[in-house]
Design brief:
heterotrimer, A mainly alpha, B alpha+beta, C mainly alpha, A: mainly alpha, C: mainly alpha, globular
């Protein structure tokens, strides 16, 4: 398979959130604003990219019986690294994401890619796979964040793009928890209706 | 089939390497995290009162604001009144007259849990700026008899902010007594003349010396307690104020209560039950120092 | 927020782990096809969550904090929970066969359940003592179970409903969950009023 294919497969065709329905917790929880969603996506991409590379490098040295604890150790190391760096350099983003930063460690997507891909493929391919899947996750979160922030707060990255009038009386429901479920439900329905048919 | 030994060894090595890497990351970021926190706090403090330096009086709760000419211009305190969705992180600046110089409410990203779109509007300037210049007498919502306009559909959050400010001013007003303002403890005096640098002053009435005012410290429960006392020529205490103390909040800090401090004017009070160490420290400190300076009362 | 009753109610209803905090969504959508399985999963979560909160509390306050090793928190917690689940499974299999038959199949799924790890982190971040931390995790687990069972009951009916094929499955489940979350939003402010 070509490198570009590995990359786009994770980005779009097998998008973790919108197609595979994995990693839903952070996708719903921190997609209230574009900034939070994008930040969360990049943090998870960082962890996925590097854990994929390291696990792929070590794939021949890891005994099969203890592979899961070793994967978890490697992943949690990268999670802690991003956790502390975010606290030091992006404190307001860190506070907005809250407990979901350390919880990247249990995001099924990361352990899933380690187990299903990185432990069986070359370093270069694993790197592309990690980047593709991670950016696919970022893309899905950012799109959700954009929809929810624009409708729910009348802003995009803090700018009132639908006019001040709408900003003063937006659809508040959208940035509250129920809005997250509704947005992903409608998005999934649209994907089912328009995208699935083409592939069939 | 891998042997058990190689399994354990690999697992051990991986765990070791990970811990070492993390300890490096931690030692690199920990001081920066602390610095970032300090910068954020300082930026917040500067938003509520115009001053250069902020010295903590009670860690993370009360700061003294000092301007570029080394004068104390007011205090800032941080409180967390209960709002609609959770505690509201609130900072309030007060000038020496007890007027509010500004308030700052953390945004949702910084931990505000009010309803998005409704309660969170308390962070907007239109609401916050109403508080500037208000005092304990009028910091209520209009519907509660004050002068603050509530946010439409967010009365609970708006009222919580007012109540938080009101309670905080009541609780921390004693910190407002500006340091070295001798008149706080000796209201009858017209003028003060320094006798011992930064420690003791003669209080002058219409024509002659009517007493002394002095500053002293004593060891409290957690830290030194710095206090200022006024005494008449007859040995009558005219007032006691605390300049610095860091006793246990809610327990030892009751020595700052107006009731306790005012009781010194009648006679030296008894220790407060539940805060014996702190109150005894202050009582003995006052007694000792009055005794110590009695030569000046001639 | 030191009152145990408030901590319990807060964890159970106001900040419901699934609908308000968005933790444990995988089992919420994955194992909620039938009321019976949802009940089993709910019980297993309460059980493991409580034990996990004890163990992680002891590990954190007994080892990580005194030895200044807080930076290992994420790694240590997840490994502790993973081994704990294994141990519980083995123990139940040997000693409490009936309980194992009821909960056993759900236990392996719990390791990757972010609700468990999330609760242990939240208990630490909130600086709860041992008792409050226990109450917090029981309340959270109970909140998880109640929402799971209710949602399973809704989905059992949805399966029979004539709906458009493009919104069958996940989309309608999400929308139903959204409506439930909207109902739970009514609990917010419960603290402000008490």
């Amino acid at each position: 398979m070509k490198k570009s294919q590995i990359f786009t497969r994770g980005l779009i065709k097998e998008n973790v959130v919108l197609v595979l329905m994995i990693g839903l917790c952070p996708a719903l929880a921190v997609s209230g604003t574009v900034r939070d969603a994008f930040g969360m996506g990049l943090a998870a991409t960082f962890v996925l990219f590097f854990s994929n590379i390291i696990i792929s490098i070590m794939r021949k040295a890891i005994p099969n019986e203890v592979r899961i604890p070793i994967f978890i150790l490697i992943i949690s190391t990268f999670v802690t690294i991003i956790d502390y760096f975010m606290q030091a350099f992006q404190p307001s983003l860190y506070r907005a994401l809250g407990v979901f930063v350390p919880l990247i460690v249990v995001n099924c997507m990361i352990l899933g890619r380690a187990e299903a891909y990185a432990s069986k493929n070359s370093v270069i391919n694993s790197a592309f796979d990690g980047l593709g899947v991670g950016l696919g996750f970022t893309l899905a979160l950012t799109v959700m964040g954009a929809i929810r922030e624009i409708l729910g707060n009348g802003t995009f990255l803090g700018m009132a793009i639908l006019g001040q009038g709408f900003k003063n009386a937006p659809v508040i429901f959208m940035i509250l928890p129920p809005g997250a479920f509704l947005v992903i439900g409608v998005m999934k329905a649209l994907i089912n209706k328009y995208v699935k048919k083409e592939t069939q | 089939m891998t042997s058990t030994r190689s399994m354990v060894v690999t697992l051990f090595i991986v765990a070791l390497v990970c811990s070492v890497i993390l300890s490096f990351v931690y030692s690199y970021t920990a001081p920066r995290i602390e610095e970032t926190q300090k910068e954020l706090t300082l930026a917040g403090l500067k938003e509520v009162i115009i001053a250069e330096v902020f010295t903590p009086v009670v860690p993370d709760t009360v700061w003294k604001a000092i301007d570029s000419t080394q004068n104390v211009v007011g205090i800032v305190f941080r409180v967390f009144p209960q709002g609609y969705g959770g505690p509201i992180p609130l900072m309030v600046g007060l000038d020496l007259e007890g007027k509010i110089t500004g308030i700052r409410i953390a945004s949702a990203a910084e931990g505000l849990k009010e309803t998005p779109g409704l309660g969170v509007k308390i962070i907007e300037p239109d609401f916050r700026e109403q508080f500037i210049g208000k005092t304990l007498d009028n910091v209520f919502l209009k519907r509660d008899g004050g002068e603050i306009d509530a946010i439409t559909a967010a009365t609970i959050s708006s009222r919580a902010v007012c109540n938080g400010i009101k309670q905080a001013i009541e609780k921390f007003a004693s910190y407002l007594c500006p340091p070295l303002d001798k008149r706080c403890v000796f209201p009858d005096a017209q003028d003060f003349i320094e006798a011992i640098t930064d420690t003791l002053w003669y209080a002058f009435g219409e024509s002659d010396t009517i007493g002394i005012v002095f500053i002293a410290t004593t060891q409290g429960y957690a830290d030194q307690i710095e206090f200022i006392v006024g005494v008449t020529m007859q040995g009558q205490i005219t007032g006691v104020e605390i300049l610095y103390s860091n006793e246990t909040p809610g327990i030892g800090e009751v020595i700052r209560s107006k009731e306790f401090l005012d009781s010194f004017k009648e006679k030296i009070p008894d220790a407060i039950t539940g805060a014996t160490v702190s109150s005894k420290a202050l009582i003995n400190g006052v007694k000792e120092k009055v005794e110590c300076y009695k030569d000046y009362l001639k | 927020m030191k009152n145990p009753a408030l901590i319990f109610l807060g964890a159970f209803l106001v900040n419901n782990i699934v609908l308000m905090r968005f933790l444990g969504l995988c089992p919420f959508f994955g194992v909620s096809n039938a009321v019976e399985t949802a009940t089993g999963m709910g019980m297993a979560v309460i059980f493991v969550m409580t034990i996990a909160s004890w163990i992680t509390w002891i590990v954190y306050h007994g080892i990580l904090l005194p030895f200044d090793l807080v930076f290992l928190r994420t790694a240590v917690f997840i490994l502790t929970i993973a081994s704990l689940v294994q141990l519980v499974e083995m123990f139940l299999k040997k000693s409490y066969r009936t309980l194992y038959n009821a909960l056993g199949i759900y236990l392996p799924l719990i390791t990757t359940n972010c609700a468990i790890l999330g609760v242990t982190f939240l208990a630490i971040d909130n600086k709860f003592n041992f008792l409050n931390s226990t109450i917090f995790s029981i309340g959270t687990g109970l909140g998880f179970m109640v929402v799971m069972i209710t949602f399973a009951a809704i989905r059992e009916r949805l399966d029979l409903a004539p709906i458009n094929p493009s919104i069958k499955g996940y989309p309608i489940s999400f929308i139903a969950a959204g409506l439930m979350a909207l109902a739970f939003l009514g609990f917010s402010g419960l603290f402000g009023l008490t």
